[in-house]
Write a structure and sequence with these properties.
39% helix; single chain; cytoplasm; 306 residues; seven-stranded mixed β-sheet; two-stranded antiparallel ribbon; Rossmann fold; transferase
């Protein structure tokens, strides 16, 4: 980004100097419980990257609450404050899920659990496999057209309308399909919405998911690194979760390592890599904050919209 960029650029060494409280610091055990399979996030990352980020999010949250109160006083209305929605976008295997879980725990701690903080992923808004098969979209799973975007926008609209009970569809990475059961959330103060598609736009829709966001984050890294992390994760899963005969991907434990590598590379080159270039990466500069990772999976730079 050049000198006239709409973003402030904070190299890691500058971002870590921001004054923060250590009260939201995680323990090694807590971090291990929420860390992604091959994500190298450390306690040092929590202290240097996530503590300043949580304080920034708290500033934005309090600002929104204040403005809402002032507006309602002026309009002589008594509408309840709507949820503060945080969107987290980025490629598969870049570490979105770990970041979302870290922020959930740290925001709970920041507000001493006086605010209800929820976390959902957009995987449940994928069409079920049966529908994808019918539409000929199984090879496009993860692309914008494989999601029920109307349902996702309706969900966000219900949230922002302060609907009391909102259903969230659930997804299983084990069965690689949407589950029949749903989860109900009720009027959270803060909700984190994580998914590769959350910042994408659809010209056929009048309203985009990001229209409902109060703060948005994009997890960034070079494609060569994301591809390497994707392959590393695939082979880790091949030795662990895929070993279960009920796993959708169990079949890939029965082939040679070279055959499995060819399959994983083909999946990246034809699906995940294409989706990254054609859809996901193009949304990067729609985010208010970009977290840039280096080859070691650690965040090296932070870009914050001015």
């Amino acid at each position: 980004m050049n000198h006239y960029s709409p973003y402030f650029h904070f190299p890691r060494e500058d971002w870590r100097k921001l004054e923060v409280s250590k009260d939201q610091m995680l323990t090694a055990e807590e971090l291990e419980n929420i860390r992604g399979l091959n994500d190298r996030i450390s306690l040092e990352d929590i202290a240097e990257i996530y503590l300043p980020l949580v304080k920034l999010l708290a500033i934005h949250y309090h600002e929104q609450v204040f403005i809402h109160g002032q507006k309602m006083e002026y309009l002589k209305r008594h509408a309840t404050h709507t949820p503060f929605v945080i969107g987290i976008a980025g490629s598969v295997a870049v570490g979105k899920s770990t970041t979302a879980r870290v922020l959930k725990i740290m925001l709970d701690r920041w507000f001493s659990k006086t605010r209800k903080v929820e976390l959902i992923t957009t995987d449940g808004f994928l069409y079920p496999n049966a529908v994808l098969e019918e539409k000929g979209l199984m090879e496009r799973k993860g692309f914008p057209e494989s999601y029920d975007r109307t349902r996702f926008v309706a969900f966000l609209n219900d949230l922002k309308s302060n609907k009391e009970n909102v259903e969230v569809p659930l997804y299983s990475h084990f069965t690689y399909d949407v589950l029949e059961e749903t989860r109900v959330i009720s009027q959270p103060d803060i909700i984190i919405v994580e998914g590769i598609n959350v910042l994408q736009v659809d010209p056929e829709q009048a309203v985009f998911p990001s229209d409902f966001f109060d703060f948005s984050i994009y997890m960034d890294a070079e494609e060569t690194e994301i591809k390497r992390w994707y392959l590393e994760r695939f082979f880790m899963l091949r030795e662990t979760a895929f070993q279960d005969t009920s796993s959708y991907f169990h079949r890939y434990t029965k082939i040679t390592e070279e055959e499995a590598r060819i399959f994983a590379l083909d999946t990246w080159d034809k699906i995940n890599g294409v989706n990254l270039k054609e859809n996901i990466e193009r949304t990067k500069y729609r985010a208010q904050l970009i977290l840039k990772k280096g080859a070691d999976h650690l965040i090296s730079d932070v870009y914050l919209r001015k």
